[in-house]
Specification:
Layout: E1 4-9, H1 13-23, E2 29-35, H2 38-45, E3 52-56, H3 64-73, E4 80-84, H4 89-97, E5 102-105, H5 110-121, H6 129-142, H7 148-151, H8 156-166, H9 171-178, H10 182-196, H11 201-211
Parallel strand pairs: 1-2, 1-3, 3-4, 4-5
Helix pairs in contact: 2-3, 6-11, 8-10, 8-11, 9-10, 10-11
Length: 216
């Protein structure tokens, strides 16, 4: 059985060691590596590609948000799970808007840790209802909900891709279903982001669900 490789990025050694000890109890995972900040993580990713990244938000040299932005700029599409504490809601929301697949409190239980990682690897965005509500609330402050007329700006293909994205399908899965190239799916997603005034998959899905353009 192939093990899923996890990269742990956190500036606290005790957090990294704790996560490693937990993950090593599950035969489905192995530690791909660890990094104390985003800069070290990016260097690691030049030669290796883990299946998922556990990413702290507050780190020296390069923090979590800047790391996600750098990964987006480089088109490195590895699922990211934010490591957060109880008082970091605003930073966490920004990370989710940038495309992170979910979040974990640093004192989370082992089963929640396993479930969140596995969901992210499958391409799903796993958020608790209260976090989705905060994400929608943050989006409402930035732009209004789309009217039915504005929703028609999306083409039939774009609506299909957005619906598939909301259900957790990856770009390559969508491309296969539609019989098009994966880069074409990425181009459609870029058009969707521009039309909806968003910057990430998570944000696009949140706006579309709130506006009633798509349904789960």
């Amino acid at each position: 059985m192939r093990k899923n490789k996890v990269l742990i990025v956190d500036d606290h050694l005790v957090v990294r060691e704790g996560l490693k000890l937990i993950l090593e109890t599950n035969e489905r995972f192995e530690i791909a590596g660890e990094a104390e900040n985003g800069e070290v993580a990016l260097k690691f990713l030049e030669t290796q590609k883990p299946d998922v990244i556990l990413l702290d938000l507050n780190m020296p040299i390069m923090n979590g948000l800047d790391t996600i932005k750098a990964l987006n700029d480089r088109e490195i599409s590895i699922p990211i799970i934010i490591l957060t504490t109880y008082n970091e809601d605003e930073l966490m929301i920004k990370g989710l808007e940038l495309g992170a697949k979910g979040y974990l409190l640093k004192d989370t239980g082992r089963e929640d840790l396993f479930r969140t990682i596995e969901s992210a690897i499958r391409g799903e965005t796993l958020l608790q209802p209260e976090i989705m509500a905060k994400l929608l609330g943050a989006k409402e402050k930035k732009s209004k909900v789309l009217t039915p007329f504005e929703a028609t700006k999306l083409t039939e293909k774009e609506l299909f891709i957005l619906q598939a994205t909301a259900k957790g399908y990856r770009n390559k899965d969508i491309a296969f279903d539609m019989g098009i190239a994966e880069r074409t799916v990425k181009a459609h997603l870029t058009n969707i982001y521009n039309k909806l005034g968003v910057n990430s998959r998570t944000e696009a899905v949140a706006v579309a669900l709130e506006s009633g353009i798509i349904h789960l």
